[in-house]
Amino acid sequence: MAVSFLGRTEVSDLCLGKPRLRSLSESATVAEALAALKNSDDSFISVWNKEGGVCVGKVCMVDVVCFLCKEENLMSPFSALKEPLSHVLSKVPGLVMHLEPSSSLLEAIDLILQGAQNLVVPILPTKRSSISRRKQHLQKSSTIGREFCWLTQEDVIRFLLGSIGLFTPLPALSIDTLGIITSDVLAIDYYSPASSALGAISKSLTQQTSVAIVDNDGTFIGEISPFNLAYCDETIAAAIATISAGDLMAYIDCGGPPEDLVGLVKARLKEMNLDKMLQEFTILSPFSSDTLVSSSSSSDEEESPIRTSGRHKRSYSYSTRMVRKAEAVVCHPKSSLVAVMIQAIAHRVNYLWVIEDDCSLVGIVTFSSILKVFREHLETI
């Protein structure tokens, strides 16, 4: 029954009510991508080829921040923002794939298991006859002029959770029993410089996971999550360049950066002679007396290609769009599959850290590994 159900379910059924994609051309600059992200409620902006017919990737604030954290860009952030968007886009192939609305959910799951994070699906008109719908399903026309939406791993997991009874007894089994806990995790010591985690942060974004913060005994303390970093603004690059991994956790917490850490970042930027980054950070810092930027700004300020962004302009490195506390979401090896799915959906994350009772880190369980279990289960039915 489950195989038949998923085979009959079309991708369009999961896309009902989804908003259309915000998009940029691959010829845009980093500054234009930054402005688009600040003026969007979505964490990611789709990037299309110059002809506008194919989505070639996606960009989020974490991509921009990792780019700004490069040594040469820390020295001159304003110049870095003028670089083409191609310098920021992930070079990992297949993260974004096109899929027709008539494709089955099984086809979507297979693409995700091959590495796709986001599926680009055309939005069908809400009012249509069965004949026009059939024509649209058969039509092999250009994508130009059509509107699209994202289909994500979370969408698929949410849909499977709504039909979880079809997969009995799989949902009641523990993640340990199912063998979906990955012990090969991205981790960094609490006292290590946050900058040493840049490679891991970039990789975690590609894997849709996170970077664990651990102590010398391997005890799990917290995480540096790209999902939380995506709700900061570009000046978080200054914090990453100057403070420890442990302090960065506090810096990106939903309460906003503590005043003492803001002061520490400023002092270390001075010590490192990062004058341009210090100026950018000071302008946007929430605790500085000179946070407000007047229209008669300095020539250095005018150099920045993103200094003004209308009513959506942020004046600090913490975004009011952050709605969940920057705490890691954890589970136990004996947690059931369905419990883990519910917990991940409730916290809007694509993964859960797996820890023992003593807080020692066992590994991580991801949406991708969960989908793999469902797919393998279907093959045994």
From TrEMBL:
Annotated source species: Lupinus albus (White lupine)
Annotated GO CC locations: cytoplasm; nucleus
Keywords: CBS domain, Repeat
PANTHER family on file: AMP-ACTIVATED PROTEIN KINASE, GAMMA REGULATORY SUBUNIT (PTHR13780), CBS DOMAIN-CONTAINING PROTEIN (PTHR13780:SF128)
SUPFAM superfamilies: CBS-domain pair
Pfam families listed in its UniProt record: CBS (PF00571)
Keyword field contains 4Fe-4S: no
InterPro entries noted in UniProt: AMPK_gamma/SDS23_families, CBS_dom, CBS_dom_sf
Signal peptide region: none
Region (Disordered): 289-313
Protein name per its UniProtKB record: Putative CBS domain-containing protein
Comp. bias intervals (Low complexity): 289-298
